[in-house]
Design brief:
- By secondary structure, this protein is an alpha+beta fold.
- The two termini are 25 Å apart.
- The chain is built from nine helices and 19 strands.
- The strands form four sheets. The chain has a six-stranded mixed β-sheet with strand order 7-8-9-3-10-11, sandwiched between helices. Strands 2-1-4-5-6 form a five-stranded antiparallel β-sheet, covered by helices on one side. Strands 14-18-15-16-17 form a five-stranded antiparallel β-sheet.
- It has two domains: 228 residues, P-loop containing nucleotide triphosphate hydrolases (Rossmann fold, 3-Layer(aba) Sandwich); 113 residues, Nucleic acid-binding proteins (OB fold (Dihydrolipoamide Acetyltransferase, E2P)), CATH 2.40.50.
- A hairpin with a 4-residue loop joins strand 5 and strand 6.
- The protein binds adenosine-5'-triphosphate (ATP).
- The site of adenosine-5'-triphosphate has 11 residues, from helix 1.
- InterPro entries: AAA+_ATPase, ABC_SmlMolc_Importer, ABC_transporter-like_ATP-bd, ABC_transporter-like_CS, Mo/tungstate-bd_C_term_dom, P-loop_NTPase, Transp-assoc_OB_typ1.
């Protein structure tokens, strides 16, 4: 069995912050590091590029030790087989697009002419043959992004790193550039690590998501698993689901204060339960039957959300409900109002906390 192309235990200590992330990436695999501001994504990426040394742990790429503080091994950034696309691209302003792309191959020792040929080839592959003689300030945001990608790939990196590669683009350019980037990532034979806070970028571009919060990996898996079985509030919000933790007994997950969520998944023990805001029904009076899956709630806020109104509910079960404007008008929803909420069993999903 062959191991992962990239194998690392990335530990960085800073005042008030510790990054401690185990990361493995196979050849041809694209992994997205996704997480809120300050989670440590950029720090992790910088350790891979060699721009920040590890405090502890190790980093191996294709069997070569790039960083291991315990043995004082450290390979400098320019000697790593790594290509980086930075968020603001960091193109050399005084060089043409072709010379920007040729810079890496030249530094790897390729003769000037061969480096220029390789740059011309890469600019062709990203669709910028006609722009080879332009300087960065004569390029649009999307074109500069493509030059940055060509520059990173022209060194034939074993590891490609992308730091928020689409963040600087407007919505339209972003859509086209995302599709373009996806094609190049699919063709890339090495490992790729992408840092983003945009779940759409992560879902569209990555084979696997690694969610980082407060310096730790809190969840990882393919898009299907992460989006249907979130394990933290951050991931649940990202994918637009209500997430609660409780104790499952058969087809009921018991939450705080005697409230419960019905589910069609039969389960026992500590469990997560998720449901979309559209699965919540609001009632002005307590519905008949007094079932444990009817909760009292207080309307904390109401705002527009697409075609629906999004209702923030507090109480024993803080949750979010989406209702149509007609329903909202019928309920006369106002902040502070007391209300009752139920959720349909066939719209919920429950799964064990331990997995
Ligand atoms: N140069 C620095 N010196 C000291 N602390 C830093 C430095 N850069 C970042 N930090 C801290 O390290 C932690 C991780 O920051 P990092 O930039 O890696 O997070 P991130 O997940 O990339 O966030 P963002 O999405 O906002 O870019 C934060 O607490 C941050 O304040």
């Amino acid at each position: 069995m062959t191991g992962p192309l990239l194998d690392g235990h990335l530990v960085v200590d800073r005042a008030g912050f510790r990054l401690d992330v185990r990361l493995r990436v196979a050849a041809g695999e694209v992994v997205a590091l996704l997480g809120p501001n300050g989670a440590g994504k950029t720090t992790a990426l910088r350790t891979l590029a060699g721009l920040h040394p590890l405090t502890a742990g190790w980093l191996r790429l294709d069997g070569v030790e790039l960083d291991r503080p315990a043995t004082r091994s450290f390979v400098r950034p320019e000697r790593r087989p790594v290509g980086v696309v930075f968020q603001d691209y960091l193109l050399f302003p005084h060089l043409t697009a072709r010379d920007n792309v040729a810079f890496g191959p030249r530094r790897q020792g390729l003769p000037r002419r061969a480096a220029r040929e390789r740059a011309t080839d890469w600019l062709g592959r990203v669709g910028l043959t006609a722009h080879a003689g332009r300087r960065p300030r004569q390029l649009s945001g999307g074109q500069a992004q493509r030059v940055a990608l060509a520059r990173a790939l022209a060194v034939q990196p074993t590891l490609l790193l992308l730091d928020e590669p689409l963040a600087a683009l407007d919505a339209r350019t972003r859509l086209d550039t995302r599709a373009h980037l996806h094609r190049h990532l699919t063709d890339h034979a090495g490992a790729a690590v992408l840092v983003t806070h945009d779940p759409l970028d992560a879902l569209a571009l990555a084979d696997r998501l690694v969610i980082v919060e407060d310096g730790r990996v809190v969840q990882e898996g393919d898009a299907g698993t992460v989006t249907t079985r979130p394990r933290t509030d951050y991931v649940a919000r990202l994918v637009g689901l209500n997430l609660h933790r409780g104790r499952a007994e058969g087809r009921l997950v018991h939450l705080a204060d005697g409230c419960a969520v019905p589910t069609t998944d039969r389960l026992d023990g500590d469990a997560f339960v998720v449901f979309p805001p559209t699965a919540v029904t609001l009632h002005p009076e307590r519905p008949a039957g007094d079932a444990p899956h009817t909760w009292p709630a207080t309307v904390a806020g109401v705002h527009r959300h697409g075609d629906h109104l999004r209702v923030q509910l507090t109480g024993p079960v803080s949750t979010v409900a989406d209702v149509t404007p007609v329903v909202a008008a019928g309920l006369r929803l106002l902040p502070g109002q007391q209300i009752w909420a139920t959720v349909a069993a066939d719209a919920t999903r429950a799964y064990p906390v331990d997995h």
